[in-house]
């Protein structure tokens, strides 16, 4: 198929892409569909081609973290499974078998270039809690300082439905933020984001400068290979997370890995459009499973959204959901607009009797400990107004 591309002038975007050629630290994510198939397990040719590009970049002085899917897919054939299982227990079993196979291939392929690799398995919980994500950063940073290429994956064997990243694209965005990477490169079997179905002559979108550039763009779901969980939508979400938190991002195909790392005009480039944020707040905004909803009155909406203040009991008019202290909840206006997410300081049983009362009144009536905010500003993240990007087949 011949595709049309939009010419990109030698402007700021071109300079940004060139920064990949001299970047000190890059996170690269590769999807299951690029490495494995149901019929053949791990594709030696595909894996070797990727490793060649990454090892050359590492040996040229760039620190590389590889976030690699493929553990579950690699475990399907040895277990005699015809397709990716839907139940969590069988997914965990496949991941347990496949992760070792995947790491053995990476170890062998990288060692041919004189590069040592390590295995790092993370859960969402590791990035939620300050002590754990600090330890994760120290471990990854030390491995990079020692010249190692960490191979990161979600710990599917112990993950639960309630606490998971959902796909490795979002995991890669959070890892890039965690390790203070210069750029995030998301690789799959699709060479770029297009403004419609490529089979219908759509144009490549070479540059995304912000959410407004994605309005009315038809974005594809997971592919037909049957071994992955993502698709272009999750890659766009991950790239947007990175760009919105101060990290350049590129979406392209695994076949373009070497060209991408050289700063060539391939794929879709996501320019930085925000500042770096605490990794815990990125998790809260993009990954947390919301357990409840707090409806705010007009005064609280203004305080939270415009004045960036903590949420107090006096500003809440209604509570729904079943949650404990410390759980993620969303804050909404009376018209249903979701304004923010935060970690609540009270349970759904305690909170209703506190509504409309000041913290001073609550402290006097209910005792010490009830004179705190419902959601402290440090545990609160404002959400952007939803855009109208569409899901496509």
Jot down its keywords:
disordered N terminus, 393 residues, disordered C terminus, alpha/beta, eight-stranded mixed beta sheet, 13 helices, 17 strands
Radius of gyration, rounded?
Answer: 22 Å
Integer average pLDDT: 83
Question: In sequence order, what are the helices and strands, one letter per element?
Answer: HEHEEHEHHEHHEHEEEHEHEHEHEEEHEE
Number of helical segments with 4 or more residues: 13
> Main sheet: which strands, in order across?
5-6-4-1-7-10-11-8
Note the overall shape. Answer: globular
Beta content comes to: 15-25%
Give the low-confidence spans: 1-9, 222-229, 385-393
Structural class: alpha/beta
Task: Give the distance, in angstroms, between the N- and C-terminal Cα atoms.
Answer: 19 Å
Number of strands: 17
Q: What profile does the largest beta sheet have?
A: 8 strands, mixed
Helix content: 25-40%
Question: What do these coordinates show?
Answer:
The protein is 34% helix and 19% strand. The radius of gyration is 22 Å and the shape is globular. α3 crosses α5, α8 runs parallel beside α9 and α8 runs antiparallel to α11. The chain has an eight-stranded mixed beta sheet, with helices on both faces. Strands 13-12-14-15-16 form a five-stranded mixed beta sheet. Strands 2-3 form a two-stranded antiparallel sheet. It contains 13 helices and 17 strands.
What secondary-structure arrangement, pairings included, does this model have?
Blueprint: H1 12-22, E1 25-30, H2 32-35, E2 36-37, E3 41-42, H3 44-59, E4 63-68, H4 71-76, H5 88-111, E5 117-122, H6 124-128, H7 130-145, E6 149-154, H8 168-178, E7 183-188, E8 207-208, E9 218-220, H9 232-244, E10 248-253, H10 257-261, E11 268-270, H11 279-286, E12 292-296, H12 298-305, E13 316-321, E14 328-332, E15 338-343, H13 359-366, E16 380-382, E17 390-392
Parallel strand pairs: 1-4, 1-7, 4-6, 5-6, 7-10, 8-11, 9-17, 12-14
Antiparallel strand pairs: 2-3, 10-11, 12-13, 14-15, 15-16
Helix pairs in contact: 3-5, 8-9, 8-11
């Amino acid at each position: 198929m011949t595709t049309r591309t939009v010419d990109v002038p030698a402007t700021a975007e071109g300079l940004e892409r060139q920064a990949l050629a001299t970047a000190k630290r890059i996170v690269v994510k590769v999807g299951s569909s690029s490495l494995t198939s149901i019929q053949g397990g791990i594709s030696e040719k595909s894996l070797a081609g990727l490793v060649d590009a990454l090892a050359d970049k590492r040996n040229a002085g760039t620190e590389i973290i590889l976030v690699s899917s493929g553990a579950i897919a690699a475990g399907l054939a040895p277990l005699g499974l015809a397709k990716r299982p839907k139940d969590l227990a069988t997914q965990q079993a496949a991941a347990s078998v496949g992760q070792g196979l995947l790491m053995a291939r990476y170890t062998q392929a990288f060692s041919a270039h004189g590069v040592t690799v390590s295995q790092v398995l993370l859960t969402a919980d590791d990035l939620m809690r300050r002590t754990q994500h600090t330890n994760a950063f120290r471990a990854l940073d030390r491995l990079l300082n020692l010249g190692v290429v960490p191979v990161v994956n979600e710990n599917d064997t112990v993950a639960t439905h309630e606490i998971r990243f959902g796909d490795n694209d979002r995991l890669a965005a959070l890892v890039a933020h965690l390790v203070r990477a210069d750029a995030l490169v998301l690789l799959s079997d699709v060479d770029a984001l297009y403004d419609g179905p490529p089979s219908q002559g759509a144009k490549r979108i070479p540059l995304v400068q912000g959410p407004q550039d994605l309005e009315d763009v038809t974005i594809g779901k997971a592919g037909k290979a049957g071994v992955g969980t993502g698709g272009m939508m999750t890659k766009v979400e991950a790239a947007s997370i990175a760009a919105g938190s101060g990290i350049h991002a590129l979406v392209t195909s695994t076949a373009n890995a070497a060209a991408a790392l050289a700063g060539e005009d391939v794929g879709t480039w996501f320019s930085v459009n925000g500042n770096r944020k605490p990794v815990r707040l990125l998790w809260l905004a993009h990954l947390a499973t919301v357990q409840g909803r707090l409806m705010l009155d007009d005064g609280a909406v203004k305080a939270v959204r415009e004045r960036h203040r903590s949420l107090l009991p006096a500003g809440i008019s209604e509570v729904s959901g079943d949650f404990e202290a410390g759980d993620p909840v969303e804050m909404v206006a009376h018209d249903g607009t979701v304004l923010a997410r935060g970690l609540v300081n009270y349970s759904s049983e305690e909170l209703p009797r506190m509504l409309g009362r000041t913290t001073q009144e609550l402290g006097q009536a209910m005792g010490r400990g009830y004179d705190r905010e419902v959601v402290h500003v440090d545990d609160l993240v404002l959400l952007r107004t939803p855009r109208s990007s569409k899901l496509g087949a």
